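Q: Here's a chain of 275 amino acids. Please give me its 3D structure as C-alpha cells.
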Amino acid sequence: MSQIRVACVQMRSGVDVAENIAATTSLIREAAGNGATLIATPEMTTLLDRQPGGVWAKSTSEGADPGLMAFRALARELGVTLLIGSIAIRVEDGKCANRSFLIAPDGEVIAKYDKIHMFDVQLNAGNIYRESDSFTAGDEAVIVSLPAGPLGMTICYDVRFPDLFRTLAWGGAKIIAVPAAFTRITGEAHWHILLRSRAIETGCFVIAPAQGGMHQDGRETFGHSLIIDPWGEVLAEAGVDPGVIFATLDLSKVDDARGKVPSLKHVRPFRTAGA
C-alpha cells in the first residue's frame, strides 16, 4: 500500500485541558468521517498556558494523562492512526517533556518523540519565549514504520534544524510530521519557506498540523496547517481558524522526487578554509 489519506487537525488550544480534549476529539471524528486513516494534531494539543508554572500544574505523568487515555480510546473506536502532535508530560521536578505520540488503530502507543530543540527566543519586547524553563529537551530522532511507509517525528522549532530532517530521510522516512504552534510573527516570515524547504531537501511528504489564532493565554499563533509533497508543492492549507485539511499521499512520489534530484546521496564532507 503506497497511498494514505491523511488529515491535519488545526486547533486553538486554551488553558483548560478537558475543553481542549473535547475540541480535539470532535475534529478527529470529522477527519475520520471524511476517510482519513492518519490524523495529526498540533503541538501542545491539550494545553497552551504561558503563565509561570501553568504547564506543570496542569500536566501529569504519561500513565495518568487524560488526553492520552482519551485519544488511545478514540483511535481504537475509529480504527485510525493518530499522531498527537504533543502533550506536556511530567518527567522531572518542575519540568515536562514536549512529547509527541503515535497511536495505532488498536489504541496502542507505537512511538513517542520528545522535542529536541527548545524555543528560547526574544522576537521583540512583548514576545519572549523560554521553552526550556518549562520543558526538558529530548535527544533521540524517531522513525516509525506504518503500513504505507516510514514516518519521521519532529515538533515545531525542530523545523529550523535541517540536519534532523536529513537524518530522518537517511533513516528511511517518507513522511515527516511537524506539529507546531508557530507564533504569528515567525509564521508570517518563515512557516511556508521552512516547511517547503524541508520537504524538497529530504524528498519527503511533510504534514504540519498547527495551532492558529489568539489563545486564552495571550499568545497568537499563525495557523496555516500544511500538507506538502516531496517536490515542495502545497497539497492542502488551512487558514487561521480551527478545522481539518486533507490530502491523499502517494508515497511512490518520494522515490520519484529523490530520483530526479538525488541530493541525499550527494552529501560530501568538507573543510572550512581561513580563519
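Q: Can you summarize the key feature?
A: The longest strand covers residues 81-92.
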